[in-house]
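Tokens as discussed.
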């Protein structure tokens, strides 16, 4: 497709970052951005990727978020790269004025989107274990340096773009579950132990030649690492409805990711984090039907009802382990 001219705000941001813009800049608007404008910008030295945070997210619900989250994403990338080299794209600059950051452009023929791989039924448990190991390394390294917390005064942002649209909004749709869902909010807020990505989803993970590459840390927060684990595992459960033929492979990936992550916990007893993640996961599961950010591929009422039945039961009688959730979901799928 012919090159496009990006908004002037992006050109101005690149100049403030002192990047070699040259004359007229062109590029291509990339798809998939719900919370940001994302562009491939063709500079004289080669393509880069540029993200500009949006004040209102592209979803049906009225969902706003401060654009300064972009600077915390850049800070998360810095710490993630130090903890797990190669786990993020190279950061080239960040412009606080416009909420824009620039990073290395990773060609899609070499760095495949994990969500697309899963959609096509390509569920590799070895890669799922790599995701878990890398995520645990970031959590462990940052947990060992509590001074990092001061760089992330993002409690309100995390509430606004994660806890409220997922758990609080879902509680409003299910008054009988409101007590359990609000308890999950409080528990998550009270267990501040490490640097959290906040959106560990297959749409934000690239399958690179040397392992996973994490994108879109706009929800970065010093908080409960159990949130990242539960958030990612939730997607592997949901994919069973998107690509039913690969159901068993998705559940094998669920096992590989959860077991690998738990085996790499160093900052607290693994069983304590597993309990928090196991309690949180059913709330996130239900939120992808009844929260502000429903999964776009869960459209059939029968599938929504399946999620609702399992999530409600597990919120009323919380599971002790993550494998309990896997068992409950498989029983529903095979009933």
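Sequence:
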């Amino acid at each position: 497709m012919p090159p496009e001219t990006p908004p002037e705000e992006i050109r101005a941001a690149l100049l403030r970052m002192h990047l070699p813009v040259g004359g007229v800049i062109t590029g291509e608007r990339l798809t998939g951005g719900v919370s940001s404008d994302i562009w491939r910008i063709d500079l004289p030295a080669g393509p880069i990727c540029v993200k500009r945070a949006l004040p209102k997210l592209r979803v049906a619900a009225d969902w706003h978020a401060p654009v300064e989250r972009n600077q915390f994403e850049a800070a998360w990338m810095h710490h993630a790269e130090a903890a797990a080299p190669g786990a993020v794209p190279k950061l080239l600059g960040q412009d606080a004025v416009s909420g824009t950051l620039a990073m290395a452009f990773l060609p899609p023929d070499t760095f495949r989107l994990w969500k697309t791989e899963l959609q096509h039924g390509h569920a590799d448990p070895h890669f799922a274990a790599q995701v878990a190991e890398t995520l645990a390394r970031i959590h462990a390294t940052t947990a060992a340096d509590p001074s990092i917390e001061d760089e992330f005064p993002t409690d309100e942002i995390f509430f606004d773009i994660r806890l409220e649209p997922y758990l609080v909004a879902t509680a409003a749709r299910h008054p009988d579950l409101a007590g359990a869902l609000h308890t999950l909010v409080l528990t998550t807020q009270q267990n501040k132990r490490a640097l959290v990505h906040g959106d560990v989803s297959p749409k934000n993970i690239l399958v690179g030649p040397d392992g996973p590459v994490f994108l879109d840390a706009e929800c970065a927060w010093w908080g409960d690492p159990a949130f990242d684990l539960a958030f990612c595992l939730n997607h592997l459960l949901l994919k069973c409805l998107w690509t039913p033929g690969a159901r068993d492979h998705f559940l094998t990936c669920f096992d590989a990711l959860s077991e690998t992550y738990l085996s790499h916990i160093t900052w607290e007893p693994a069983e304590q984090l597993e309990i928090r993640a196991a309690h949180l996961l059913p709330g996130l599961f239900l939120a992808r039907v009844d929260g502000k950010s429903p999964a776009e591929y869960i459209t059939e009422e029968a599938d929504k009802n399946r999620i609702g039945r399992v999530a409600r039961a597990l919120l009323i009688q919380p599971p002790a382990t993550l494998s309990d959730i896997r068992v409950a979901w498989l029983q529903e799928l095979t009933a």
